[in-house]
Write a structure and sequence with these properties.
Helices cover 75% and strands 2% of the residues. The protein is built from ten helices and two strands; from the N terminus they run H-H-E-H-H-H-H-E-H-H-H-H. It is mostly helical. It starts with 5 loop residues before the first helix and ends with a helix.
Amino acid sequence: MQPLPLRSFANWLVPIALACLVLALQAGGEPVYEALRYERAAVLGGQYWRLLSAHAVHLGWAHCLMNAGGLVLCAALAAGSRTGRAWAVAIVALALGVGMLLVAASPEATNYAGLSGVLYGLFIWVLAPRAWRGDRVAWIVLVAVIARISWQMFHPPSDAQRALIGGEVMVEAHLYGALCALALCLWQAAWPRLRRARAGTEA
């Protein structure tokens, strides 16, 4: 049996580590949730770590398990195309982006917890480059993800959805994750050209 390429292991390492982290934090119960969730007043008061930590805690086990499973699915869709460093950068960038947009654009959102905003962004970050290269499966899943976000923006979550996750569904976070992922994809596509142009100018 031939060993898998190193990048294939790296592709799984960060998503699996994050999934394990959110499961461990969920096991910590209410004190961990209260200490790490997004609270607008606390963030504005200087507790900026909540912009990141809020995405690692959840409203309940069902909420947590769905997002942990989503991470595994996202890693599978990446098909070994991303390095561990790329995963880490994307997760932190998306988490900060969603958190800051909640502060700037959603003043009514006083509390938030969950990985779903980041997760929607990760799906787009993984799928968009593959779709651009002509991968039909990536196109289909990407369109489905975008359609899902669009549906959520105009159709309030059902009582069943609220009951499943144990609270309100923050659909704005899903949109913010998608927008941040789009910006990240554009930046990562443009950066090599900018670096080559800069190198040519310096030469």
